[in-house]
Amino acid sequence: MRSLLRELARGGGDARVIVGPGDDAAVVRAGRRPVVLTTDTLVEGTHFRAGWWSPAALGERAFRINASDVAAMGARPTFALLAIEAPGTTAVADLDALVRGFARAACRAGAVLVGGNLAAGPHLAVTVALLGTVSGRVATRAGARVGDGVYVTGALGASGAAVRARAAGRRVRMPAVPDRGAAGPRLAAVASAMIDVSDGLLQDLGHVCRASGVGAVIEAVRVPVAAACRRAQGAHAPLFAATSGEDYELLLTVPPRRAGALSRIAPQLGCRLTRIGTIVAGRPTVRLVDARGRTVPSPHGGFDHFRRG
Ligand SMILES: [Mg+2]
After folding, report:
1. 231 pLDDT more than 70
2. Measuring CA to CA, which residue among 88, 95, 80, 90 is closest to residue 40?
């Protein structure tokens, strides 16, 4: 799958491409300001099950997931396209609610839904293309240096805990994707690298480490754990929160010389910001350690739809 994507995305090498394939979003020169481009698909049965979200909430989720990648580049979303595949039996009112939910979320984020497509298909699939613009610094996955602090917004593990509860037959509320649209550009001003947490903290930080050629040590005790995750997982909550996916928080590295600037920005983010570890020299791997510095073995590297089958 990944080699197929690399083949599809040989956009690098063109002078108009500022950030090519392999980051949260592409950044291209299409005018005075750099333009950020991203796309993602939510497929029923793969990414979610019927009934997890109302049609309006699913529309909002589809927008926010893409907006998360735009925020991780330090950009603000501007224009969106929405393509829906749905069985012919789907109620028109449900499709209408989905589009309205999407358009409302876009509007709240300062973006406009400018087009899309509707096609009949065997199951519900929602594909979004989102454009954004950068007015300050572009943050990529490459750029983390030895000694940088590792920080994460919000709290982790709520989404994973809810999916686990649903799989066990409990009707818990599925958490919404957080809105980090204002935080992204502010954090990009001080970050040496940034990514959003879609596959799980350890796995996504691994992407940063590989792109930057550094290692990372994360202290399990510092990982901000969502209350629902702590209730469900007890003593295992920090490890669960560090490896479960779909939290869509921002994960960034900040050089020590920008720590002062970061503390001035922190109160304006509209969310919690926690230092969870440090970038270290060595192989591009992420080590989770307990309070005594011992490595905590992690059962799996994160969330990957195609690896899990
Ligand atoms: Mg991402």
Report:
1. yes
2. 80
